[in-house]
């Protein structure tokens, strides 16, 4: 069965520092990948997505992610974190033939120190 | 542009009482619709999805049911709530393309069963 792993439950970074959130997946087919962000008590907002093509994708709020097929990873990055980026981040994976169902990771809680 | 609404935003219900959560989408036609539950410290679990009026697929056996009486309306129900039904319920929609669909989430309903 497919699975998505976000190995870091909590991450704390200083404002202005760079950020990388990890996401690994286990799939037998070609995946398509998403990162969502959730502020406390809110729904999920789409940050970026990868379907095909260029493996480095740009998203909103200055985020980017790189798909590495050889490592089964889709890590999220931001060069300079802002205090407003504090939230929970979810990686999600689907695959063609999977009936448009997504499998979500358990999330990474980001704390930003001023 | 498309918007998705969920209500109520928060609900406190006694064990054994019925439940009805509503989700509506505006600005699109024939969407795929999804109900997820998010338990504390866990990722999102897909409960139901629908590809059309009256077409509901259940992902996990549970105390809940879903209905889609209109194209852009999705309802989550229970006849008798259990303590374990507490959680954050998220509705999502996607444009029906058949493959590689992007899901967009509503603001969520927080349910506390006492």
Describe this structure in words.
The complex is a heterodimer of chains A (114) and B (114). Chain A is mainly beta and 114 residues long. Helices cover 0% and strands 53% of the residues of chain A. Chain A contains no helices and twelve strands. In chain A, strands 2, 5, 6, 10, 11 and 12 form a six-stranded mixed beta sheet that branches. A four-stranded antiparallel beta sheet of chain A has the order 3-9-8-7, with no helix packed on it. Chain A is globular and about 45 Å long. The termini of chain A are far apart. The mean pLDDT of chain A is 93. Chain B is mostly beta strands. Helix content of chain B is 0%, strand content 56%. In chain B, strands 2, 4, 5, 6, 9, 10 and 11 form a seven-stranded mixed beta sheet that branches. Chain B has a four-stranded antiparallel beta sheet with strand order 1-3-8-7, with no helix packed on it. In chain B, a hairpin with a 5-residue loop joins β4 and β5 (44-52). Chain B is globular and about 40 Å long.
């Amino acid at each position: 069965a497919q699975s998505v792993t976000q190995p870091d439950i909590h991450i704390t970074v200083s404002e202005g520092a760079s950020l990388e959130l990890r996401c690994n997946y286990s799939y037998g087919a070609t995946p398509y990948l998403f990162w969502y962000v959730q502020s406390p008590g809110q729904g999920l907002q789409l940050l970026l997505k990868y379907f095909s093509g260029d493996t480095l994708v740009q998203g909103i709020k200055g985020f980017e992610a790189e798909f590495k097929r050889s490592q089964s990873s889709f890590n999220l990055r931001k060069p300079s974190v802002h205090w407003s980026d504090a939230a929970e981040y979810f990686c999600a994976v689907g695959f063609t033939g999977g009936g448009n169902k997504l499998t979500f990771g358990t999330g990474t809680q980001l704390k930003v120190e001023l | 542009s498309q918007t998705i609404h969920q209500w109520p935003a928060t609900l406190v219900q006694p064990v054994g009482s019925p439940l009805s959560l509503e989700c509506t989408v505006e600005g699109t036609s024939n969407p795929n619709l999804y109900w997820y539950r998010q338990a504390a410290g866990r990722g999102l679990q897909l409960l139901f999805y629908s590809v059309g009026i009256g077409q509901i697929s259940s992902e996990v056996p549970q105390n809940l049911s879903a209905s889609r009486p209109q194209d852009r309306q999705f309802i989550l129900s229970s006849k008798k709530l259990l303590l374990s039904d507490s959680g954050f319920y998220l509705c999502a929609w996607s444009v029906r393309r058949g493959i590689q669909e992007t899901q967009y989430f509503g603001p969520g309903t927080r349910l506390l069963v006492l």
